[in-house]
Structures are given as C-alpha cells and as structure tokens.
Amino acid sequence: MKKISHAETLQEAIRLLKLQQAGQLDQLKEQYYYTYDSFKPTNLIKKAYNTMSSSTELRGNIISNLIGLGTGYITKKILIGSTHSPVKRILGTILQFVVTNVVAKKTEKKIESEYDKS
User: Which superkingdom, per the lineage (predicted)?
Assistant: First the structure.
C-alpha cells in the first residue's frame, strides 16, 4: 500500500478498505452457508444418488452384481435347499459364491458390449 499524506485521502482509503472488508465478509458468510448446507446428510445422499444414476458404467456394475447375487442365491436354494448339515452349508455357500462371480462377470461383459453398441 502506498503512503498517504493528507487526512481526507486517508479517510477515503479507510472507507474503501472498510467497504472491501464488508464485501469479503459477505462472501465468506455465503461460502460458509454453502459449505454447511452441502455437508448435511440428506444433501450428501442426494449427491451420491445423482452421481450413481448418471454414471452408466456404475449402473451396469450394480445391475450385473445384483443379477449375479440373485442367481447364486437361487442356485444354492435349488441345489442344496435348507439343510442342517454344516458341510452342506459350507458347500452351498462356496457354490453360491462361485456362481455369483461367474454370472456377474459374464453379465458385466454383456452389459459393456451393449453400451459399446449404442
């Protein structure tokens, strides 16, 4: 800042600095409220949902994983059923895991090829 020699010029500089300070304070308050509002749980959830719904790749991954999980669960129920044997339960869980992964990977490849076509 340059040296000021006259009283009137000094008063004018003080007035301008006070106006600048008031403007900066208003900007700071606006930014504070914007930041505070964006960290509310509902807004975080909305933002995450909007991000997920707009991303076709993420949507494809979710769909393929859901199809894989459903297929694995149904396969386990059909082949193993409800049993009290710990060995059959472990085998059923392993079977469900394998089927889920295989179906999810195949479905993901199909979904990717569909997106590539369009």
Answer: Bacteria
Which residues lie below 8 Å from residue 99, measured CB to CB, with a gap of 6+? 68, 71, 72, 75, 76
Average the pLDDT over 16-21 and give the result. 96
The answer for 81, left when phi > 0, alpha when psi is -120 to 50, beta otherwise, is left
pLDDT tens for each residue of 92-118: 889 989 998 888 888 877 777 776 666
Output the pLDDT for position 20: 96
Look at the chain and count its residues. Answer: 118
DSSP state for residue 84 in the 8-state scheme: -
Could you tell me if 95 and 63 are in contact, meaning their C-beta atoms sit under 8 angstroms apart? no
Residue type, 14: I
Is 98:106 a contact under the CB 8 Å cutoff?
no
Alpha helices in the chain (DSSP H): 7-38, 41-54, 56-79, 86-117
Rounded to 5°, angle at Cα 91 from 87 and 96 = 150
d(CA 16, CA 11): 9
